[in-house]
Amino acid sequence: MEMLQYSLRKLLAGIPLILGVTLVSFLLMVYFGPDQTYTLLGKNPTPEQIAEVRAQLGYDQPFVTRYAGYLRELATLDFGSSHSTGEPVSALLGRTAPVSLALVAPGFVLGNVLAILLALLAAHHRSRWPDKAIMGLAVVGMSISFLIVIVAFQIVFSSASGLNMFPVRGWGASSLREYLHFVTVPTLAIVFVSLGYNTRFYRSVIVEEMTRDHVRTARAFGTPPARLMLRNVLANCLIPIVTRIVFSIPLIAISGSLIVESYFGIPGIGKATYDAIMVGDQPVLKAVVGLTAVLFVLAQLFVDILYRAVDPRVSLQ
Amino acid sequence: MSALLEVRDLRKHFPVRGGLLRRVVAQVKAVDGVSFTLEAGRTLGLVGESGCGKSTLGRAILRLQRPTGGQVLLEGRDLATLPPAELIAMRREMQIIFQDPFASLSPRRTVAQIIREPLDVHGIGTPEERARRVLELLDVVGMRAAVQDRYPHEFSGGQRQRIGIARALALNPKLIVADEPVSALDVSVRSQVLNLIAKLQRERGIAFLFISHDLSVVRHVSDQVGVMYLGKLVELAPTHELFTNPRHPYTEALLSAVPVPDPRRKAKRIVLAGDVPSPMNPPPGCPFHTRCPKALPYCSQAVPQPVDVGSPGRPHSVACHLYT
Amino acid sequence: MSAPLLSVRDLVIEFTTEQGVVRAVDGISFDVFPNETVGLVGESGCGKTVTGLSILGLVPRPPGRIAGGRIEFEGRDLVGLDESELRAIRGRDIAMIFQEPMTALNPVFTVGSQMTDVLRRYKGLSRRQARAAAIELLARVGIPAPDRRVDEYPHQLSGGMRQRVVIAMALSCDPKLIVADEPTTALDVTTQAQVLEQLVRLQEEFRMAMILVTHDLGVIAEACDRAMVMYCGRIVEQAPIEELFARPRHPYSAGLLASIPARVDDERRELPVIPGMVPDLLHLPPGCRFADRCGRRLARCDVEQPGLAPAGESRVACFNPVETPR
Amino acid sequence: MNAPAASAVDANGAPAASRRETLWHKALWKLRRDRAGMAGLAVVMLYFLAAIGVWLGWWATGWAEVAGGKWEAPSAAHWFGTNLIGQDIFARSVYSISTAFEVGLVVAVLATLLGGVLGALAGFFAGRFTDELVVWLMGVLDSIPFYLLVAAIAFAMAGNPYAMHVAMISTFWITTARLVRGEVIKLRQLEFVEAAHAIGVPEYTIVFRHILPNTLHILLVQSTITFVAAIKSEVILSFLGLGVKDGMSWGLMIAESTIEVLAGFFGNFLAASLLMFGLVMAFNFLSDALQDALDPRQVS
Amino acid sequence: MQFAARVSLGFTAFLAAVLLAGCGESRTPAGDASAGRKVYRHSMDEAPSSLDPVQAANVYANHVAINVYDTLYSYKYLARPYELKPNLADGWPEISEDLLTYTIRIKPGVHFIDDPAFEGGVGRELTAEDVVYSIKRHFDPATLPQGAWLWQGRVAGLQEWKAAGSDYDQPASGLVALDRYTLRIQLAKPYPQLLDSLAQGYAAVVPREAVERYGAQFAMRPVGSGPFRLVSFDTSRILLERNPKFRQEPVDLEAEGYDPATQGGYGLERIAGRSPPFVDLLEMDFINEPSARWNSFTKGDEVQYTTVPNEQLDRVLASRSPVRLKPEYEERYHSFAAIEAGFIFQVFNLNFPEFGYHPDPGQERRNKALRCAIIKAFDWEARNESFYGGIGEVYPGIIVPVVPEFDPDTPRDSITRDVEGARRLLAEHGWNAQNLPVLTYGTTGSVVMRLMFEQFRAWLKEIGYPTSKVVLRQYATFGDISRAWKQSELPWIAKGWGLDYPDAENTLQLFYGPNGSPGSNDANYRNPEYDRLYEQASVMLASPERTGIYRRMNRMLIDDCVAVTGLSRKRIHLWHRDVIALPDREIVGGFFLKYVDVLDKPAAGGR
């Protein structure tokens, strides 16, 4: 009951956020955004044809009508069909979102798990050389642009100038082998890029926790280090860790990793969205942005509920 | 002597929100109906355990927090309802000294800037006069003029506390609320600061509301002592009277609990059961009845009103059913 | 007298700060005998807490390190033991109680879980036995309804109860020595009294030795057999408790005692004061560290550091100790 | 922990050290002792000189000229070779330093200012309407994926060369504002703010005289972090065709390089990524050192 | 931290396993279902945005449209220059004397594929009504059609049908199904390119039931009668499979225009006498990046066909002219160098008084001199070398080499760089760095476009055009820049044009006055003489006389310094030796896919 009430209240509080996100994105992407008129015109168009196309796309309607239409679509979760392909937006999302998840998930999980391990290692040896080495490498890793990593990995792993072991691009997941074949290089790139940031973040969280009194108490009672790190440090760091992880999920699930997907030519949601921006495919854009906002609100709720699971001090009031 | 400060039935409640629409579902009654008077140039000590509402009381009196109800009359004017513009003018009359010598001084401002700020705000004197006044104040609190260009972090706790006192004195207030001014200080420094406060009061006739959890300190500086428990003033008496003849069971327990720094004088101790209840759900009736060794059945039903159990000229008020 | 349980000799603890290396503890020596309670008293920064931590090897490193001396526990030098050897001693032979009951327990596990963790590790109890033992211990430290409290989280308990839980944990393995660092400072007066009484009672009951680190002379007077007064990283006086309070020999001890308002009977008299401030550990005077503030200063005080020397029943580090008539 | 008092003060209340020490002096002193940080600062200054040189027309003036043939190998004349249309890659990569600084400085300064002011106001009026509005705005902008927002702003501004800057500023201020807001909420409860109230200092004066100066360390560190973020984002945005309009940047060079690398020409890729890596890493080290030096928990 | 070490060790092991798995075998395109089936994999640089024929505006869409649908006519597989042949039409049409009435017979017995849209789920027979319906759709705004310009004003009655509300149940006078298999087209004026228009993807025949049943999703779900049918489609790949109901029409190599002299080495004889399609599964990968496409091709296990990216030309070619592969490529791949049916060119927008028409005739003359000087500054050779691998064909004017009207003897001075001449021209007409107008150069965000701009700006600098006066304006999308072109917002337009049919009329109309913005005449060139000639030629059948008119018009454009033109790109098609094909994407695009065969050998899958 308390939970239900809490969830309802959180969802209610999310409404202004959703309205804000939809309004801003509608203004920017739809109202002032690119339109499809000139991509849908024939080679030798007349002004009448231009007007017809605009009418067909609904561009001639007043702002309020169009925005209200957007909200209605969001409420019914029916965004119609893509302007450029005619594919229903739901089908498009259903097709691309799993790809994005499958693409980013391994890198995301590895990037976080590995970072937590490195952070524990660094924190355990705080101010000594393993810490300095790990943190130094983290800064180096943070200093390399994602773009450079992708290009470099492609040269190293996928080109004739390098190992030539993996495909340059593309996607397939009909078998585990095929999946691994395609996902490995993007995963390595994602891990490489996120590792530095994640490690630093987790280290600072862990180091802060390690200075807490209860850790000293546990040490004074002879708790072995592994148990100390797990029960006293990691278990108490779960709130920032959970927050960081959960809040990255909407971005992955809805907007995917735009750069990875467009560079590796993976038909995920990021690429679909990017393509939609480039041609002004408004139904797709509206769906993606609207759903991202909704997912963010849900993530907030989810995080708060998780907080209570990981920390008994948190109450849902 | 007329009363400088008169507090009547002062209340400060903090709403607790809950439910679907974040409605107010409960009140934390931090201060719940406190009345007393303080005469000019005297010191009222306020003791109580953490969470009893003594700091909130101090802030509500200065209207650093807006009271929920009741009146605060400073020289007859009700601070609780004063409009903001007049309130700012009234702030010349009353000041505060804080507990934490580290947090109470802005780290990015020099000592002179800190001490001069009240003068700047209230537009007192020319810049030269203000500068002179800063030196004067530093001298009063026993610091050398050379320190005025330094920053707070360069000083020790005791010295920062002196700077805080100098700032409080800048406007020549009639009332100073001292909120645990020495509890963060070491023993040897503490007596320096206590002596300074005593000297100021003696020489300048400032009234102090001295808030502390340390009974021995309160005993040392106060003319009158009030004991707070769960937002209520349970006992108020002249210092000597209170310490030698406590009437409220809580006061008795409190006094007996203080460790005596004399191994030969092992006191007989009244050990209280349990802990202080939450101010969000104070027990009905007398707030102390859950822990009171002398509680009667009636205590859980009615809130005891303060009664005077003192002798003429030595008012001793106590809120306990044992005396009604 | 029997052999000392703990024998500290010439202990030096250094901290690296930005301005340089600071000696927080500078060559102190003392003994603790079985079943006695020794007080370690002094103002903040005098090195008392670090001394307590060093016994269990808990001085945070970096920035701190034990730079010299020995800490012999039952004849075995604890300085230089590695982490796993120290772990075997922590909790089992020597237990520690900390100042902040609010934060000393892990907030995400129940009280029972944290207690059974220790019990199972040291006593090899089964989960069920450990739980029963935990409940019993909670009862012994005076927690009402221990079978219910055992499943609660620290934040659901009051400060006093939490401190009792820590005490119960400390007792759980029958240690020979307890180091209690300001165990009552953060508590309210009425609770402080309860906890302190409990601690004294349990110390006798369990026949342990205890080092009580505190700044509160009242606590020392109530609980200790013997006390050591620290100033600026050194022990300036060591005396049986009655002797210390009745006849403080060191000018610092004397000044400290004099400035306690509770010992000044007349309410409104001006308090005696120790003038000046504690010197900066980075810029210590060459001679006696108290010399600057001392009313009994001699010429040699500025050049020579006094060592602890017997004076009556006490030992005092002063060239010109206070003489109080009996 | 009984940490020894940081500074010495003698009996009369005069600090033992005769040198006057502000928090900034202390921070500077700490910064000077941080070797990685100083090295970072030196490298950043070097880059900055290079950027100034470009602005003043001392060097890299020929970045747009066709100075050789298609894809010439590195030589004494062209250190990193030439590109597809025969431009000198080295000159272009040096010119790009000025682009990086231009983008970094504009975005860092404006985003930090915006974040500082809005964060401080929100924090000071926490729980009131101003705060709710700012928090709402932060939530809204945070919920729109960054590259989508940038693309959207680029479109809405119809090819305006500053669309990228606007887009970055409108997202990067949020982190700063969050931090400042959190810090201000903390500061607001400190007694010195209460003291200001007790003296009768007006609210806005309290914000700008007492609270904002105490967040300067956050603003300084954040501005370096924002600077780095801006440079890194610029590269990706330019690569996507949403970034630098006229001129040259490392992102554009990397975009050019994708045509080349599989043909075995690495000039653009190497020049752009090495120069960028150098600057970003130097900035990261500098930023870390600043953070350490300015952290008030360590200073006071 | 032993446990951390253990976990990292485990992770390293996992990573190693992944790496090992990665270097193993590669994928199968359609999973196990493809076992034993003949598969051909094709790469393209872009995905079609829609599979609906009314939106088959580009070569990518046509690649799919004409393979899943049928058109009345199509181009011969092997004949070059391109020649039409009847496809769905049963032979050539009957054409009236006045060239205004075409009567076309349709092959009987052609069925649509089975689809739930049809009664009983079984594809029904395709009739003349379907053709009428399919072309009418271009005059229904609701379908967002893009091909109306092919028939607008030419086929009678369509405009009126549209004005009356685009009701498919109403007749359009010029487009009538006389009976089940006969179609009559009535023209408003002679339209020599009508049959070409009917070979376009736009003219592909769709069944009304499917359009109405699937609505907007029809664009994703083609239901046709072509040689293939759709299995799956997304922006990275389309999968087509053989249409088992496709009519049996054995290949007659000679009729397809087979030339053993030039096409002998491709093994095309193998398909003679057999009925297409020859592969079971046709997979097209859409890969934007040339490098990725190339890699996927050369690794030998993915796509079997590609075009050589420019940056690889030096690696692949032993000689550029004639195109010859290096031996190591020669032994693995077939190749074919095809010149583009279209060109890239730049025009001045003459609506801008700074560059074009001006009320003051003197200023207009100066403007022309300025244009001519800029044309002289343009270095086609360098442009070709940098961006087209040096193998593009540069020629004066706008009659492209693939059309029969092309005249190789046109004087080449308009495409020969002459910096001195340009400067002289500017000086003579009083142009100097101060009074030269700002030239705004619009591009999309693509890095290649930027480099082209920078190259152009560098050339102009050499004739004294200040760098600061050649300004880049970037548009985020192609749609945006199209709008700028169509709304006549840019003085300078650089674009490409792909021929819809092999007739010079298709490029000459780009300068026909009435086609001015927003029409296809982006230059807004208005020359009464030119327009008159255009109108005259546009109703003429191919003849030497018409060729003469075309060439005169071409000359006028060159003399008026309207455009910097032109270059036709050359594409080098490369395909695995086990693939039997002659790839082509120039006219319509993709019509060869129907004839692709893959050799049945163990390495058939390329593995």
Search tags:
heteropentamer; C: 326 residues; alpha/beta; Rossmann fold; 2 domains; eight-stranded mixed sheet; four-stranded antiparallel sheet; 10 helices; 30% helix; 23% strand; globular; E: 607 residues; alpha+beta; Dipeptide-binding Protein, domain 3; four-stranded mixed sheet; 18 helices; 24 strands
Model description:
- The complex is a heteropentamer of chains A (317), B (324), C (326), D (300) and E (607).
- Chain A is mainly α and 317 residues long.
- Chain A has 13 helices and no strands.
- In chain A, α6 crosses α7.
- Chain B is globular, with a radius of gyration of 21 Å.
- In chain B, 51% of the residues are buried.
- The mean pLDDT of chain B is 86.
- Chain C is α/β, with parallel strands linked by helices.
- Chain C has two domains: 6-224, Rossmann fold; 234-264 and 271-316, no CATH class.
- Chain C has ten helices and twelve strands.
- In chain C, α4 packs across α6 and α6 (159-171) packs parallel to α7 (189-206).
- The two termini of chain C are 26 Å apart.
- In chain E, β5 (94-95) and β6 (101-105) form a beta hairpin.
- The interface between A and E is large, with 73 and 70 residues.
- Large-scale geometry of chain E: globular
What is the typical, i.e. mean, pLDDT of chain A? 85
Strand order in the sheet with the most strands of chain E:
2-11-10-9
Main sheet attributes: strand count, strand direction, barrel closure of chain E: 4 strands, mixed
Tell me which CATH architecture of the domain at 97-271 in chain A applies here: Orthogonal Bundle
Rg over CA atoms of chain A: 24 Å
Strand content of chain A: under 5%
Percentage of helical residues of chain E?
Answer: 25-40%
Secondary-structure element order of chain A, as H and E? HHHHHHHHHHHHH
Number of helices of chain A: 13
Helical percent range of chain A?
over 70%
Uncertain residue segments of chain A: none
Q: What is the terminal-to-terminal distance of chain A?
A: 12 Å
**Named CATH topology of the domain at 97-271 in chain A:** MetI-like fold
Most strands sheet of chain A: none
Which structural class do the helices and strands of chain E define?
alpha+beta
> Can you tell me the CATH class of the domain at 97-271 in chain A?
Mainly Alpha
CATH superfamily membership of the domain at 97-271 in chain A, which one? MetI-like
Arithmetic mean of pLDDT of chain E = 89
Q: How many H/I helical runs of chain E? A: 18
- DSSP summary, beta strand count of chain A: 0
Secondary structure layout:
The complex is a heteropentamer of chains A (317), B (324), C (326), D (300) and E (607).
Chain C: E1 6-16, E2 21-32, E3 37-41, H1 48-55, E4 64-73, E5 76-77, H2 83-89, E6 94-97, H3 111-123, H4 127-140, H5 146-149, H6 159-171, E7 177-181, H7 189-206, E8 209-214, H8 217-223, E9 226-231, E10 234-240, H9 241-246, H10 251-258, E11 309-311, E12 314-316
Parallel strand pairs in C: 3-8, 3-9, 6-7, 7-8
Antiparallel strand pairs in C: 1-2, 1-4, 4-5, 9-10, 10-12, 11-12
Chain D: H1 23-33, H2 35-55, H3 89-124, H4 129-143, H5 146-156, H6 163-188, H7 191-199, H8 203-211, H9 216-240, H10 250-260, H11 267-294, H12 296-299
Helix pairs in contact in D: 1-11, 2-3, 2-11, 3-4, 3-6, 3-9, 3-11, 5-6, 6-9, 7-8, 9-10, 9-11, 10-11
Chain E: H1 2-23, E1 29-32, E2 39-44, H2 59-68, E3 73-75, E4 84-86, E5 94-95, E6 101-105, H3 128-136, H4 158-163, E7 175-179, E8 182-186, H5 194-197, H6 208-214, E9 228-234, E10 237-242, H7 260-263, E11 281-286, H8 290-298, E12 305-307, H9 313-316, E13 317-319, E14 324-325, H10 327-330, E15 333-339, E16 342-348, H11 361-377, H12 380-387, E17 393-394, H13 419-428, E18 439-444, H14 447-462, E19 470-475, H15 478-486, E20 492-498, H16 505-508, H17 528-537, H18 544-559, E21 563-568, E22 570-576, E23 579-580, E24 597-598
Parallel strand pairs in E: 2-11, 18-19
Antiparallel strand pairs in E: 3-4, 5-6, 6-8, 7-8, 9-10, 10-11, 12-22, 13-14, 15-22, 16-20, 16-21, 17-21, 23-24
